[in-house]
Amino acid sequence: VRMVEDDLMYSTFLEVYEINCARNNREADLPITHFKEQLNQAVSGQLQAEAIVDIRLQAYNEITKTYVTENVFSQYMYKTLPNGNHLWAFKKQFAIQLALSSFMSYILQIGGRSPNKILFAKNTGKIFQNDFHP
């Protein structure tokens, strides 16, 4: 059992995404639904492996263009932090923490990182892995 103190300054990437969806009047599960609809043919076994890879890539590109844009997190932090100095300090610390976290995940061969397992401090930019077990 791992006890963690709840801090109001910590949020998850999933919370950021859900706030973005609420702001844009969009269902949070829409990208998953779209991806599954695109791959229905692959599940039924009608396509070969190369075609499945192409369909997955096409579905991913459509999702990143229409549903989950690349600036979801930066928009959230821009609206959360009071001024540019705080944003710069956050970005610097966050980049260091994210690089360290990614490196450790690679070295320890930890996969399955999902948005609800990664917490970040809105005031400092530090990252906390919810279940960082090799």
TrEMBL record:
Q: Which GO terms describe its cellular component?
A: NuA4 histone acetyltransferase complex; nucleus; SAGA complex
Alphabetical list of SUPFAM superfamilies matching this protein:
Protein kinase-like (PK-like)
Which species expresses this protein natively?
Answer: Nymphaea colorata
| Coiled-coil intervals | none
- The segment(s) forming the PI3K/PI4K catalytic domain are 1-134
**Cross-referenced Pfam families, in alphabetical order?**
PI3_PI4_kinase (PF00454)
Which Gene3D superfamilies does the protein's record reference?
A: Phosphatidylinositol 3-/4-kinase, catalytic domain
Q: Name one GO biological process term.
A: DNA repair
Q: What is the protein's given name?
A: PI3K/PI4K catalytic domain-containing protein
Which superkingdom heads the taxonomic lineage of this protein's source?
Eukaryota
